[in-house]
């Protein structure tokens, strides 16, 4: 069975280093910054509150961003945007909305972040339920597509106890079937979608802070599921949208994700190769999500649930490495969503396990989400959840070469890299105050700068060496 093969491969991966990942023989690759440095991206999804806000903006201020940066040293955001906001009427792109997005992007730019724009959807659109919540008072459910692009053909959407269950309501299934045009009645919808992305890309093409476009949150195939959907209408939409983006933007990375249902829980994806028409190396990235079923159902990370979750992570990782390495052609990986209710038993252990895997995979991570509440870093009263301490660890943010292995505890970081002589900018490392209250001791590299306020250390390794290992500990250690 494919599942058990994948499991075996993942176990081997856990013992190897970055260069010998389990699901593929292809070494991890990285999104690079304008200085050519490999980026290790750590941040949040911001935010769920944008989904049904009339102006499409998250309930997230510049002060919230300052707090996040000071508390966790993040350098990345998966920023939620929506098709309904970009194209409120067919063929009309709302430039005032894009102004608001650009304004938020400038907050991130001023603080040295990189932004991935995520065209979010859940359960197709806000128009699947007139009240927006299916009548069950659970808050926002459907979001994403504009009402004018929602064709349910009169089929029902009944109130459901969980938001995910709306996906299999007949009206929602039909809306997706019409979007993918498996009904043969709406060939215009995917075209609108690609053109909406082109309008976004046109706006951000010259913006160095926006590095990536996540083409569609959690694709769902309606009545077409699994590999036939992923290799069929999904891959076709990705290709069409990539082509549309490349007409206006040659440099941003285009991120593709698998079908969410099943693949988020560790099953194999049937996604096929997307060709990047840009001149030069392709800039496609793979951006899957991880939501092990036991945790999603509200179980903690302990006992049998922990065993099942670990098996999920192992299979999930092997398949991601296979798709990114072998199917898509050795592309970077960004985990677009991982997250859980931090009050569940074992939450810290689960977070550590996922971030350890991400580190070994060379993957970026966007935690779901920065919204106040038990899943996030802060409660509505501003107090911290355990997430802040769990995530506030040293990490290399930008590496002058290719990282081959790195590890960290709160007061120690070790990084091995293959230096790239063409990169002149230094390697940048984040060091939290909890582990590094004073000076730093650096072995294996020269210190360029240590800024105790921003918690950023920059170092330069010897030129000409084939590999370099940098170790950072607190001064006096
Ligand atoms: C959830 C929000 C919740 C909202 C729901 C539907 O936390 O408040 O009611 O969306 O809009 C995903 C989705 C992401 C989900 C998240 C957590 O991409 O939008 O947010 N999740 O449930 N996939 C798996 C989990």
- CA radius of gyration: 22 Å
Shape: globular
- CATH topology of the largest domain, by name, is TIM Barrel
Helix content: 25-40%
Describe the largest sheet.
9 strands, parallel
Tell me, rounded to a whole number, the average pLDDT.
Answer: 93
What are the salient characteristics of this protein?
477 residues, alpha/beta, TIM Barrel, Immunoglobulin-like, 2 domains, nine-stranded parallel beta sheet, 11 helices, binds ligand IDC
Structure description:
- It is globular, with a radius of gyration of 22 Å.
- Helix 10 links the parallel strand 9 and strand 10 (364-367).
- Helix 1 (2-15) crosses helix 9 and helix 6 crosses helix 7 (227-246).
- Strands 7-6-5-4-3-2-10-9-8 form a nine-stranded parallel beta sheet.
- It is built from eleven helices and 18 strands.
- The protein has helices at residues 2-15, 62-72, 83-86, 95-110, 170-179, 188-204, 227-246, 293-296, 303-327, 347-361, 387-391, and strands at 38-39, 42-46, 76-81, 114-119, 210-214, 253-256, 284-286, 289-290, 334-338, 364-367, 395-399, 401-409, 412-419, 427-430, 440-443, 446-451, 456-460, 468-474.
- The protein folds into two domains: 7-32 and 41-392, TIM Barrel (Alpha-Beta Barrel), CATH 3.20.20; 409-474, Immunoglobulin-like (Sandwich).
- The relative contact order is 0.13.
- It is an alpha/beta fold and 477 residues long.
- Helix content is 30%, strand content 19%.
- Ligand IDC binds at residues 48, 51, 122, 139-141, 143, 163, 217-218, 289, 291, 337, 368.
